[in-house]
């Protein structure tokens, strides 16, 4: 695991409060990588990632889902619409909570979704509350990932599913790869990035049984070329200066991200696990 001690939780919250509008404008309702099959559009590739995770986890119709780090509600709304799930989404950002709520009304699934502004590292749910704990690209921002997975295992009912997508650090990085991952952590406000083995270790130590894990690095990496192109075309590097130095660094590190995928310093993983049946 590669850590970055300078990241602070209030900066993560501020980042999503400030950037959610731009994410929506430049990238869409889902704030995560696309998963490409061929030459499809970024929007289709993003939906493909959501759909592929839902299929891999075999999420049943009507499941009770916790969407950890729900962003603008992309996954929650997808699961409510496509699988008739009852979804609780939590996010650190009050702006995102409000946006997700409005969006679920727009998509006519507000009866099936609930969005809360809560910290995944301090929120409490009763044991056995959910059929699925789902989290796309949020665990990167957690400070104590092992404890989060222990809590998630407790919130799942016996037989429940865990579905995680995460940015990963290479298993055995060279010195320059470690530096690249550190720069990604700093620029994207991740207190640490775990490796595939770290994630499997945390998940299994929490008492969950690994079902699948996928390395999608090659299929998601082009996300950042597209983001850089769109950000540049819309003047983001310039606009960032109207916010603060964190925002300037964030936009500057898009290039670092592209390089980190190119050198193999960064990986992208999906983990599906299950809580043992009672
Ligand atoms: C990259 S976005 C992903 C959003 C969403 N999962 C999606 O795929 O569209 C990361 C999300 O994690 C949330 N997040 C970060 N740290 C969190 C925490 N400690 N508790 C709850 N949410 C958190 C952010 O607010 C943001 O919504």
Write the SSE topology:
Blueprint: E1 2-3, H1 9-26, H2 42-56, E2 64-68, H3 74-83, E3 86-91, H4 94-106, E4 113-117, E5 130-136, H5 145-155, E6 156-169, H6 175-187, E7 192-193, H7 196-205, E8 208-215, H8 217-220, H9 223-233, H10 236-239, H11 245-263, E9 266-275
Parallel strand pairs: 2-3, 2-5, 3-4, 5-6
Antiparallel strand pairs: 1-7, 6-9, 8-9
Helix pairs in contact: 6-11, 9-11
The chain binds S-adenosylmethionine (SAM).
The percentage helix is 40-55%
Q: What number is the mean pLDDT?
A: 96
CATH class: Alpha Beta
Structurally, the number of domains stands at 1
CATH architecture: 3-Layer(aba) Sandwich
List how many beta strands DSSP finds.
9
CATH topology: Rossmann fold
- Helix/strand-derived category reads alpha/beta
Q: Compute the number of helices.
A: 11
The CATH homologous superfamily: Vaccinia Virus protein VP39
Structural Rg: 18 Å
Q: Termini distance?
A: 33 Å
Could you explain the architecture of this structure?
- The protein has one domain: Rossmann fold, CATH 3.40.50.
- Helices cover 46% and strands 21% of the residues.
- It has a seven-stranded mixed β-sheet, sandwiched between helices.
- The protein is of the alpha/beta class.
- The protein is globular.
- The chain has helices at residues 9-26, 42-56, 74-83, 94-106, 145-155, 175-187, 196-205, 217-220, 223-233, 236-239, 245-263, and strands at residues 2-3, 64-68, 86-91, 113-117, 130-136, 156-169, 192-193, 208-215, 266-275.
- Bound molecules: S-adenosylmethionine.
- S-adenosylmethionine is lined by residues 12, 16, 30-32, 69-71, 74-75, 90-93, 96, 119-121, 136-138, 141-142.
């Amino acid at each position: 695991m590669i850590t970055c001690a300078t990241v602070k939780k209030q900066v993560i919250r501020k980042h999503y409060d400030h950037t959610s509008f731009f994410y929506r404008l430049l990238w869409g309702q889902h704030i995560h990588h696309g998963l490409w099959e061929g030459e499809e559009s970024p929007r289709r590739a993003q939906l493909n990632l959501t759909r592929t995770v839902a299929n891999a986890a075999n999420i049943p119709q009507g499941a009770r889902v916790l969407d950890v780090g729900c962003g603008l509600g992309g996954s929650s709304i997808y699961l409510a619409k496509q699988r008739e799930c009852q979804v609780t989404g939590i996010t650190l950002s009050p702006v995102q909570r409000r946006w997700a709520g409005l969006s679920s009304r727009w998509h006519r699934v507000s009866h099936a979704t609930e969005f809360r502004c809560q910290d995944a590292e301090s929120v409490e749910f009763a044991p056995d509350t959910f059929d699925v704990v789902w989290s796309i690209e949020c665990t990167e921002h957690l400070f104590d990932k092992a404890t989060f997975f222990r809590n998630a295992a407790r919130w799942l009912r016996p037989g429940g599913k865990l579905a995680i997508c995460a940015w990963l650090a290479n298993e055995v990085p060279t010195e320059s790869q470690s530096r690249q991952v550190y720069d990604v952590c700093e620029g994207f406000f991740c207190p640490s990035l775990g490796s595939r083995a770290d994630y499997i270790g945390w998940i299994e130590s929490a008492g969950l049984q690994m079902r699948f894990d996928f390395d999608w690095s090659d299929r998601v990496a082009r996300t950042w070329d597209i983001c850089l192109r769109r950000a540049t075309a819309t003047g983001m590097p310039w606009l960032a200066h109207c916010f603060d130095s964190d925002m300037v660094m964030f936009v500057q590190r898009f290039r670092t991200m592209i390089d980190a995928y190119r050198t193999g310093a960064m990986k992208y993983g999906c983990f599906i696990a299950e809580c043992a049946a009672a």
